[in-house]
Amino acid sequence: MNNASEPSNVVDLSQRLDPRSERVGELLVTVRGLATKRLHALASNMFENIDDALFDLAEKAENNAAQTQFFDGMREVRKKRAIVERTFLGQVARDLADFSAGRTRAPDSDANARPLANIELSLVGENELEESLAITSMIGKNEQRLARALFAVNQRLSVICGGAKMDDASNPVGPASLAGAFRQAMRELMVEVRVKLIIYKLFDRYVLAGIDELYDDINNELAAAGVLPQLRHEIPTRRSDAPAPIGPVSAAVAPAQVAAPVTDAAAAEFMQSLHALFSARRGDAAVLGTGGMPLATGPLPSATELLGALTLLQSQIAVLPSNAAPLATQADVTRDVAQLKEQLLAQIGQLRGQQTAHVSGMDEDTIDLVGMLFEFILEDHNLPAEMQVMLARLQIPYLKVGLLDRRMFAHKSHPARQLLDALADAAKGWSAEADRDGRLFDKVKSIVERLLHEFDDDVAIFTKLAAELQDFLDVSRKRAELAEQRVAESTRGREKLEHARRRAAQEIVGRIGGASLPPLVYGVLTRAWANYIVLTLLRQGEESHEFRESLRFIDEFIASARPVHDLNSRRDLRAMLPGIERGLRRGLAAVAFQEADTEQLLAQLHAFYRQQLGEAAPETASGTIVASVMPLPEAIQAIEEPVAAPEPDDEVDSLLDEAFDERYLAQARELKVGQWLEFVAADGTTDRAKLSWISPISGRYLFVNRRGLKVADHSLAGLAQAFANGTARVLDSTLLFDRAMDAIVEKLRQPEG
Fold first, then answer.
1. Name one Pfam family in it (predicted).
2. Are the CB atoms for 639 and 501 separated by under 8 Å?
3. Is 407 helix (H, G, I), strand (E, B) or coil?
């Protein structure tokens, strides 16, 4: 006990000032001036950084749509910066004016403004919930970080306003009021929620992170003015805002035995809405037991009893053999998931020495919610069956987390939720073929084993394991990216070559038309010269001077093979021949013709042209020179019968002609690089592959496994056909926990059939 002579740390709120006094007015003007000056500087700094941050994100955007969002956000912020800043500071000024006039805001007034029915409808809607979560998260973090200074500001402002109660929520310069004022100002911006959330993060980083000095200024000024100058920053224990348990609870339960409360408005709303849904779904089952018999009466299990019983059940699973991946079938695991509540109650009964058939309403909601989460995992086609069974072993650790901290269900940033999402995302691309060395499977398995063996009540282990998993995935991703890049470059090279060969064939065939060329001339064009055009296209491209010259040579060479009947045509042919010889020598040298082969070919052509000009008779009656073909070195690939390959649109048209369903083509067109698909082979085996690259030349889709190795490539029409046949299926890219919560809420809203 403190000695009576020792100074008291408790603030005597009888020390209060008359809010109407001149002195109070001066102090309030001082506080308002300090707040306006400091917040204006912080807000200006934030807006300077918003532009840079959005620009950096636009440069690193994963696709054009995301990049457009960031650039649009930059333009909108630049255009409306002044009005947003003015609205924010104006709202803060109004809050301070209301405080000066004695109109203090009731805590949590915004959270209680909407009826539960309306909250329920908006909970799963992403935009409003994400915005609320971002704000409540930053408020909670900063209230905790600034607790001592904020407590002192609350006490001193309480004295100024006549002793009225002042807490973090009603403080006009507290994190809650400032965040609320900024949210009001953000309504001026017409931006995507993704951009809005980034701006909220920057508000947290540049404004709320800098209000320490504002609180120091206010405390120093008020203390110097004689307002609680001896105040010590003693922070009272905060009242728990956990919902009251449903049913009788032993009065002897110590505070440490109570499960962690839901400590922010969004999470509390979420759990209240779920409680309403669960209660409506249970109906009479909440009053009657399984056979219509009344439930056993008695004290409800405390949080300590629930966690202790779960720890015992967890230890029983943890001692199973570590090689127990196939220790149970899918049906076995599904049954175990469904029976966990019954096992938990039985375990509590054994610990108590008496039958226990019920728990508090909120605890029962949590148990059922986690059970439905893991039922979803076992039914989720996004996960391979082996990974479903593996992850389902985590039901007890996640139930313990849910009982300790129900914010897991509402906050995407919760470490336990992030770990499960990361495990599921890694497992999505897993297959036995792609993981022959078992590295990924073993990593997931080791994380599951460590949670079962090591997790008691410290949620920090989830953060640690998530970091380890991320390090492992980063190393694997770097290896895969190198392999994926080689596959893409190889495929791109082959496609460019094939496209160049088709283009060369089209140009040669189109220019020959229906003309009947001597075999020697036809052979030069379709062999050596075709290869030269291919090389020119690959090196210089279609817009180059060299390519145009190669096409002009084709026309001149074909013209030189036409029969010569008069003096003018002989003169024209003689004028053409030097250019033909120069062009041919250059082209043959480019495609690695040996000099001896070139001279042999030119000798044959000279003999042919002498015949054309009537300067030499054919060697034989059959005209062997005219009928001969050019020598073809082994290094030269012939294009014997150049034909144009069908264009992708032709394939699509043929499918549409057969009444092919357009929605499958649309599904294929909407695929984005990075999406995962599951392919079913003819023998029924499945493989998972990621869309790595879409060819800008042929439009073909290249798929690789998680090691970056090629699994398949499909045309647009072929992929659409696979969707139609059921041999290809797109895997959902939404995070597992989000999909599960959406599905659970939807299921709870449906009447039981």
1. DUF1631
2. yes
3. helix
Pairing of strands 686-694, 710-714: unpaired
- Of 681, 684, 672, the residue nearest 731 (C-alpha): 672
How many domains, the chain? 4
Contact 635, 592 (CB under 8 A): yes
Tokens of 524: 């030069």
Residues 6+ apart with CB under 8 A from 200: 131, 134, 135, 138, 182, 186
**Mean local confidence (pLDDT), 312-337:** 63
Phi and psi at residue 705, to the nearest 5°: -90, -175
Same domain assignment for residues 415 and 343: yes
Residue 254 within a domain: no
Q: Of the candidates 225, 245, 274, which is a domain's last residue? A: 225
> pLDDT tens for residues 242-277?
333 333 333 333 333 333 444 566 677 777 778 788
Instruction: Confirm if 392 and 444 have CB atoms less than 8 A apart.
Output: no
**Structural domain harbouring 306:** 300-457
Whether residue 664 sits in one domain with residue 582: no
- Please give the backbone phi and psi of residue 692, each rounded to the nearest 5 degrees, phi first: -100, -35
The more confidently predicted of residues 560 and 294 is 560
Instruction: Please tell me the distance from the alpha carbon of residue 460 to that of residue 416, in angstroms, as a whole number.
Output: 9
- Rounded to 5 degrees, φ, ψ at 286 are -75, -20
Give the span between the Cα atoms of 43 and 186, in whole angstroms.
Answer: 13
Sheet with 701-704: list strands edge to edge: 710-714, 701-704, 686-694, 676-680, 728-730
